[in-house]
Amino acid sequence: MLGYCPCIMCFESKKVSRIMKAKVLVVGCTGQTGSLIVEQLENNNLVDVRYCSRRQEQVNRWQSEGKDAVYLDLNEPRTFGIALAGIDRLFILTGYTVDMLLQSKTLTDAAVKAGVSHIVHWGIFANWDCTEGHFAWH
Ligand SMILES: NC(=O)c1ccc[n+]([C@@H]2O[C@H](COP(=O)([O-])OP(=O)(O)OC[C@H]3O[C@@H](n4cnc5c(N)ncnc54)[C@H](OP(=O)(O)O)[C@@H]3O)[C@@H](O)[C@H]2O)c1
Question: What phi and psi values does residue 12 have, to the nearest 5 degrees?
């Protein structure tokens, strides 16, 4: 996409060709799954990653490394608004407990409100008549 450089030196409407990167919020990026996803995204020139954790000390650590990082607790919907501000895409990962329903719904609803255009939810699926608990739940 073509954009305009916002700096005052370029104010004379000099067109600059630069890529407008999509901002991706990755839930669970301290975990096994999320850390691999973040690693892949960090090597992708088309996206910028926003890290999040429910542990403030981890958020502080990322921020001190110059990363875009925010506090987000899936059990605290009031933390979603700031975490989602300016986000284009969202990766949702939850633990496998009954809480996942509320966590996924509230975060998805907040993402829609925030104008997020693409959501990937970490899940599983099987044939419709599968009776194994993990799959039937989904
Ligand atoms: N829900 C589904 O549809 C589904 C489908 C497949 C797998 N899973 C589950 O997905 C998980 C992925 O496995 P994994 O090996 O990557 O897990 P893991 O290494 O235990 O990592 C879990 C991640 O979730 C984050 N997290 C947990 N509770 C949170 C909360 N309340 N708010 C914000 N972040 C929270 C943790 O972040 P911090 O500790 O840094 O906050 C951590 O980064 C497993 O629990 C698996 O059962 C779920």
Answer: -70, 45
Q: Determine the pLDDT at residue 33.
A: 96
What local confidence, expressed as pLDDT, does residue 90 receive?
Answer: 98
* For residue 111, pLDDT beyond 80: yes
Which one of 93, 121, 122 would you pick to mutate in the ligand 1 pocket, going by the greatest count of ligand atoms within 8 A of its CB?
A: 93
- The residue segments making up the domain with residue 110 are 23-137
Residue 14 placed within a domain? no
How many A from CA of 92 to the centre of ligand 1? 9
Going by pLDDT thresholds of 50, 70 and 90, the confidence category of residue 83 is: very high
Q: Whose CA is nearest to atom 35 of ligand 1?
A: 28
Q: Is residue 28 part of a domain?
A: yes
Taking CA atoms only, the protein residue closest to ligand 1 atom 3 is 123
Q: How many domains does the chain have?
A: 1
Q: Is the dihedral of CA 35, 37, 41, 47 positive or negative?
A: negative
- φ/ψ (deg, to 5) at 40: -65, -45
Q: What is the mean pLDDT of residues 107-127?
A: 94
Q: How far is the CA of 115 from the centre of ligand 1 (A)?
A: 24
CATH number for position 58: 3.40.50.720
